[in-house]
């Protein structure tokens, strides 16, 4: 494999490739950034700020040449739980602390340790997160007004069922247009980002046919500002740090796993080799800086990284260009972005959830009917019905128990033959030997 930064000289041809990739991935990242922010319980522009700041820093400082960073679906249930319990301001504190922890992890060379997390645990919590994201968008898809976000899965399902009679036909039509475009367009061409095309088509339908009767970003959250916010330090008082440290640990752990998984995918697609510890340091610096501009936690995004590679990226510059593209759209087209219907955002996240659900790996592990299957189901169920901490914690505890049991069995198997011979000798004969 080639080292991550083995570029072999940088000229016009490589810049052209980076420019094309950066523009395409930037256009893909715009709707995703807003959608992930909304689903995380914060205003949509914070997702764009994260895409710009963290996206550029992760590309410049991380350990993978092709990594694209930003807000991701994996963070949604974690960030939403933090916002519901502590509020947006303390989420910024948790994000900054997580960045510090990631830098420490990188400096301590913990990148290689994370690779040993069992597959059953990662597949279980990833599938659980996918279920939470998908079901969390049913309300927006149906145009249910006044939806309250709850911490637990069953509470949110109950909220949807209670408000189901108030579903909006206009919202369903708008969401269906977006979903149809996203599913059909890739079969026709791969040159146009499906999410962007779907949202554009759905917004046009909303404006032309329903005359603004569907809820939009502007009507719910206000107009998107056309600039980055002023630099501001989050609350770093001792009491807040102590309160938010557990959340920061969770963000750092999940971010490290997600970013290194993405880097491994990039290695497999390009034949390069990422530096896992540098990746953690780069992710950490990005998450330290991003909250200063109001951004939410970020990590490596597998789908956007893969799109970056498929569109011909040659170096880290493509990730920087992707951040610049998002910034330009924010500055130049914020009023137009504010008109996007929330119903058009729902299918984008539903498709993301479907794609990240690890369906095949889940089925394969489940068919084994082995201890791995038990770990998978426990991790998945607890992630969905309680939270990610419970799911991952239980999964790792079960893995540890199974491995301890196997170690004891192997140790017993080694000792059994000698013991069996000794026990088979009559007591009188053993005495005679002594």
Could you please describe the fold and organization of this structure?
The structure is a single chain. Helix content is 73%, strand content 2%. The protein is an all-alpha fold and 434 residues long. The protein has two domains: 10-359, no CATH class; 360-414, no CATH class. A two-stranded parallel ribbon has the order 1-3.
By DSSP (H or I, 4+ residues per run), the number of helices equals 20
Tally the structural domains. 2
What is the strand arrangement across the widest sheet?
1-3
Q: Which stretches are poorly predicted, pLDDT < 50 over at least 5 residues?
A: 421-434
- Percent strand equals under 5%
Helix proportion of residues, in percent?
A: over 70%
Mean pLDDT over all positions: 87
Query: SSE string, helix = H, strand = E?
Result: EHHEHHHHHHHHHHEHEHHHHHHH
Largest sheet: 2 strands, parallel
Cα end-to-end separation: 63 Å
SS-derived structural category? mainly alpha
So what's the oligomer here?
single chain
**Alpha carbon gyration radius:** 25 Å
SS elements, strand count: 4
Q: What spatial form do the alpha-carbon principal axes imply?
A: globular
InterPro entries: SLC26A/SulP_dom (IPR011547), SLC26A/SulP_fam (IPR001902)
Main location: membrane
Domain SLC26A/SulP transporter: 15-379
Transmembrane segments: 20-39, 68-84, 91-117, 123-143, 164-186, 192-210, 377-402
